[in-house]
Amino acid sequence: MLIPEEVASGVFTVAAGDHRTAFVVGSGGVVALNSFGSRDRAQSYRQAIADAAGGAEPEIVVATIDHLDHTGATADFAPRAEIVAHELCARVIEGRGAPSQRLPQRPIRGGGEELELGGTRFALRYLGPTQGTGNLAVHLPEHRVLFLAGPRGDARYGLLPDFHLRHVTRIWREIAALDVDVVIPARGRLMTTAELVRAADYLDAVKRACQEGFAAGLPIWEIETLGPFVSDRLREGFGDLPGFDRHIGITSIRVVHHYLMGGWGMEDTAEPDALLEPSAPQ
After folding, report:
1. What is d(CA 183, CA 102) in angstroms, rounded to the nearest whole number?
2. pTM above 0.70?
3. What letter would DSSP give residue 140?
4. What structural domains does the chain harbor?
5. Is 84 exposed, middle or buried (0-12, 13-18, 19+ CB in 10 A)?
6. Which of 2, 65, 155, 227 has its CA at 20 to 30 Å from residue 99's CA atom?
7. pLDDT digits (tens, 9 = 90+) for 46-66
8. Helix (H, G, I), strand (E, B) or coil at 234
């Protein structure tokens, strides 16, 4: 059973294990973000919405990211709702063809759009590649709430296969400049904008320490060597973050393999800015 937590008037967050999402009960209906990734969690999420909204069902689902663990159960969660997603995310969903993940009907283009959905004003922002493909930041300006998949309020960045490390922290800082009281991440606990900036500072510090290890001639592909090296440099500034000791080594190795050694995504393309800069909102 999932328990909805109201973070602003009509805005609720729901956590299932380490995963988290949100929904809005507006004057024109319920707008849900994502679906979780399994039938059981999707159905529990649907029930949590009904409990908070007097039995109402979601009429619109914003698929903020293509990842199956976040949006892979939209067919079970909301079989009749309109699915909204960025056009880049929609292409991945269409190409994947997973029967449990419904194809978006309304694409968000370029750098994003401002829409009224279910009687609530949404600013759906795409500032560039962060995590996944076409990962939307969902800003509710009238409620001073932000939802985004990617950042965490701790140090548990154990896997970074499609984090675009050239861009992600820049974009997090740009988003943190919005007038927001509550940041709802898709993983982990609720955050403030100051904690979102600190999340960016942490990943940048890991990147920098890994590069320092490379410059010092360390075998940066060995976690037994790189982990303690990075840990020593970051402990004073970030050692208080939950999960620091357990995850700093593997996070460093992921940075080395997905960033310094060529990148998993588009970081090392010949003209990355030409490929990654979204067009201005219409």
Report:
1. 27
2. yes
3. E
4. 5-146 (3.60.15.10), 150-178+192-275 (no CATH)
5. buried
6. 2
7. 999 999 999 999 999 999 999
8. helix
pLDDT band at 263 (very low <50, low <70, confident <90, very high): low
Listed in sequence order, the residues at least 6 apart from 95 whose beta carbon sits closer than 8 Å to its beta carbon are none
How many CB atoms within 10 Å of residue 226? 23
Q: Which of 259, 147, 280 has the alpha carbon at shortest distance from 208?
A: 259
DSSP 159-227: --TTB-TTTHHHHHHHHHTSS-SEEEESBSS-B-HHHHHHHHHHHHHHHHHHHHHHHTT--TT-HHHHH
Task: Identify the pLDDT of residue 238.
Answer: 98
CA 219 to chain centre: 32
Amino acid making up residue 253 = I
By the 8 A CB rule, do 19 and 185 touch? no
User: For residue 173, what are the CA distances in angstroms to 178, 183, 198, 252?
Assistant: 9, 13, 9, 21
Report pLDDT digits (tens) over 103-150: 999 999 999 999 999 999 999 999 999 999 999 999 999 999 999 999
